[in-house]
Specification:
The chain is an alpha+beta fold. It folds into two domains: 123 residues, Phosphorylase Kinase, domain 1 (2-Layer Sandwich); 223 residues, Aminoglycoside 3'-phosphotransferase, Chain: A, domain 2. It is built from ten helices and nine strands. The protein starts with 19 loop residues before the first helix and ends in a 9-residue tail after the last helix.
């Protein structure tokens, strides 16, 4: 197995191959054409500490009044940037955020426009107003003992946790999700369609290579398939605290909708729980205490069920599914790092799965032994 990285040397994997100066000029031309006025785009840069699925560009737009307004654009990566996902469906992301804003109390960034014409930036893109706030960092992870969340009082972290549960509950309360988000409707059993889609995504990532751990994960899921039936709700998809902007520990914008789908509420709840466990396990791996009293499964599930009146079921299965899905993503992230010369190809693709020991323990039925619920 490959050696563990030094946490002090962690850097953000390369995401974009685009020239910021060219992006600035093209964005400015788009704004001028759209508004018909004298507009200047400046301060173009990428966010730090989180996110690697798509090109996210932060910038300001200054109008004739001289006032600079902060904006953000999301673009599908260039094909030569070895994108994390095969399809970004930015129009679906835009429409999903618009409906979330209209149908729920969940905060999303104010939407400006979705641009389908690739002539402007070389791909379709969407533009939003930037919201002031902070996010728990991925690199280095917020569980590593530094940063605003790790250094916060326990009561403030508990308040943030309660608000996160409220975000999930608010999204899942949108009535008749199939009618509200028809572009996400698979037209059949939502859980079966979701797993089939992730299986296809895994095949795309592996591209004929052997990923024994990923294959074992999907085999385990099929062998332990939950009985159901489950409610069908809007699933945010990448439901983790690193995709929420906070102000005073309160969500002010829910971000990153490229994994949105329809499915059981357990999808989002288990993803939220597992992605924290992923970072917490990583902290322990480096000899750090992590945040073991934060986002515990028992606490998150209890708070969600009390808030919604729903009973969540088969959480072991759904948490394992989250770990399998994340293994596919980590495999792609690792292959991208190899592609850009940031890492060397390991002997086994399984070594690209940062949470390999955790997933192996889940498949063996031993992961939760001795782990606080």
């Amino acid at each position: 197995m490959a050696a563990d990285p030094d946490p002090s040397e962690m850097t953000r994997p390369r995401v974009s191959t685009r020239d910021p100066a060219e992006v600035r000029a093209r964005l400015e031309a788009w704004f001028v054409a759209r508004t018909g006025g004298a507009v200047t785009v400046g301060d173009v840069h990428a966010p730090e500490g989180t996110g690697m699925s798509s090109d996210t560009v932060l910038f300001t737009v200054t109008g004739p009044d001289g006032v600079a307004a902060p904006h953000v654009a999301r673009l599908a990566p260039d094909p030569d940037a070895m994108p994390l996902f095969p399809d970004y469906a930015l129009d679906h992301q835009y429409r999903t955020m618009a409906e979330v804003a209209a149908r729920s109390p969940v905060p999303v960034p104010p939407l400006v426009a979705h641009e389908a014409d690739p002539a402007w930036l070389g791909t379709e893109f969407l533009v939003m107003r930037r919201v002031d706030g902070v996010v728990p960092a991925d690199i280095p992870p917020y569980t590593f003992g530094t940063g605003w969340l790790a250094e916060a009082a326990a009561a403030d972290r508990a308040r943030l946790q309660d608000h996160v549960v409220g975000v999930l509950a608010g999204l899942h309360a949108v009535p008749d999700a199939r009618a509200a988000f028809p572009w996400l409707d698979p037209g059949r059993d939502a859980l079966r369609a979701h797993v089939d889609g992730q299986r296809a995504f895994a095949d795309w990532v592996l591209d004929g290579r052997t990923g024994r751990l990923v294959e074992a994960g999907f085999a385990w899921l099929e062998a332990h398939w939950p009985t159901g039936p489950f409610d069908t709700v809007l699933s945010w998809g990448d439901a983790r605290i690193g995709n929420i902007l906070f102000a005073d520990f309160t969500p002010v914008a829910v971000l990153d909708w490229e994994m949105a789908a329809l499915g059981p509420p357990e999808l989002d709840v288990s993803w939220t729980i597992f992605l924290h466990r992923f970072f917490d396990d990583l902290a322990v791996q480096f000899g750090l205490p992590g945040l073991p009293d934060f986002l515990r499964r028992r606490d998150v599930v209890g708070a969600y069920e009390a808030r919604t009146g729903r009973t969540l079921r088969d959480l072991d299965w759904f948490t394992t599914y989250a770990a399998v899905r994340h293994a596919v993503i980590m495999t792609r992230v690792g292959l991208r790092s190899v592609h850009f010369g940031e890492a060397t190809m390991p002997a086994s693709l399984d070594d690209l799965v940062t949470h390999r020991p955790a997933l192996e323990a889940m498949l063996a039925g031993t992961y939760w032994d001795g782990v606080p619920a």
